[in-house]
Amino acid sequence: MTDKTSEMPQPPSDGPVYLPQPKPVLRIITVVGIALSLFQLYAAGIQPLGLFFQRPIHLGFILVLAFLMFPITGKRPRGVIGWLIDGPLILCGILVGYWVPANIDAIANAIVPRQIDVTVGIVTVLVVLEAARRAIGLGMTIVGVVFILYAFAGNRGELPFLADLMPGILNHRGYSLDRLASQLTLGAEGLYGIPLGVAATFIFVFVLFGAFLEVTGAGKFFIDLAYAATGRQRGGPAKAAVIASAGMGSISGSAIANVVTTGAFTIPLMKKLGYRPAQAGGIEAAASTGGQIMPPLMGAGAFLMSEFTRTPYIDIVLVSIFPAVLYFGAVYLLVHIAAVKQGMTGLPAADLPKVRDVLAEGWHFLLPLVALVWFLVQGYSPMRVGYYAILAVIAAAVLRGVMNWVSEGASMQGLVALTKAGVIKTGEALELGARNAVAVSMACAVAGIVVGVVGLTGLGLKFSAMMLAFSGGNILLALILVILASLILGMGLPVTAAYIVLIILVGPALTEDFGVPLLVAHLVVFWWSQDSNVTPPVALAGFAGAAIARASPMETSVQAWKYAKGLYLIPLFMVFNPVIIQGGPLPLVLWNGLIVVMALVAFAATLEGFMFAPMPIWQRLLLVPAVVAVFWQSVPVEAAGAAIIALVLGMNWIAGRSKPAPVTP
Question: Residue 617: is it exposed, middle or buried by C-beta count within 10 angstroms (0-12/13-18/19+)?
Fold first, then answer.
């Protein structure tokens, strides 16, 4: 818990920045945040609640926090005018959390929705849109408003004239304000549907788990461990950034958060070693983006996929491990090639922590992760797993504190100080978890509006028909359309929201019209929803890396895009070789695993023009069709591509052995 104005939580990096708030407001935020976290822990581990209790109460808490944390006045002090606006909105947030649980029997038994319930529903939608605007930026609010206007556009809707502005395939009958409000707030198809349900259960408890790890110092432990393991290698800090970001992916739910936490250490050291500022920032952005696809958390994606596909959470985690390793392996290889080309060396051993010392100091941080994996394997629900994982963090921290207390003499004064510090740290973690959950919960709430409108109007089927028409039945063209749509959506939406919106719109077409397996379709869309973190012109993680590296944001984003190429290639391989996700005969699985590794190595060599030695242009040109052949759905064609890759890389290896590689600055 804190009362320092300098520690006021700020909105996401892609949203507006607000000034610190007065201490009384910060104390209220602390109280509300701790109350929300305790409520979530109660529902996760002590007494599970029904969806029409859990989800509205969660949303009510989140709305109150959003209006407290992000004033209407933005950069200016809130003042009387600000409170005259925000005060009623905070009360509306309380009303949202109270109304459905308190009136559930009357709502469920009403044949025709009561007018009072419809009115509260309208208020709920309006305050959700405003809270989303403040917490995650204008883009998400615009998306919600556009879908609401679409529901009204029709002969029987509130705004029939809008139907004339839409292509014929998108036309529908139109719906009234009361009908839409009922759809969005009085059932499980709108605001209180799957997206908010996942946010209010699985996502929150794991965000809270990450907050406990962060407060207890786990982030520094993973960074130090990565440095100890890779620091003496060529380009050591860059490789440490890759490994540390993979570890931080188990803690943070945000690529930008990964950049600013690990990047604060890795980017300056990369620059010191010889990487250009934009290159250092780009490497960190690409590595941090991988944290969103790294099991077990996957930036909340695994939980959403589990609900949408009805696939056990543990299965999502297991099938995602190999693709995530491939992604980090590709980034690691590109980093290594850049270091060799530039003649870099590692850091002196004296400047690096030792693995033994790091483990001796922070071994207890591994216990919660071991507990998390064990509970998953035992088949516990994700929410219960998160609950027990939080208890494991607390137990590990207490164990470490007691050991330190005993080693320091076991005095009563020390015990009092230890207890006080533990209470403060627990409060900080409970508050931090609630604050960190605001953005993702608001994104999921607005995504619920999208889900509700799509279900009401049948937009998903219409969008699938459009996608089929534009691609002409060609799956590669369809996938390119998905990439473009994900990039455009990602410019204005958080990753989780972009994934939800995109899978609702294009998922049916991918699975039903193009025959992509359901789980593969979800993984592909989720991976490509990350691309706005590293793809110009809007590369949020790249911009964060540029700020730390003091480099050009656009140049840094281009570098991030270059190092994150696996984000595009690996999902393509999933589509054309789904055996690596779905499984199959062991020889076929091993074959596909081998050729995808070869393809990524060949692609990295082609991109950099270097592997074991400088690569002539004809070799690079020869590798391009070989990589394409590996992605072909034909074993003979794949084998031919793999043979060419092996031949070219073998020739390059011989060239590297015969003469030393020239060093370029």
Answer: exposed
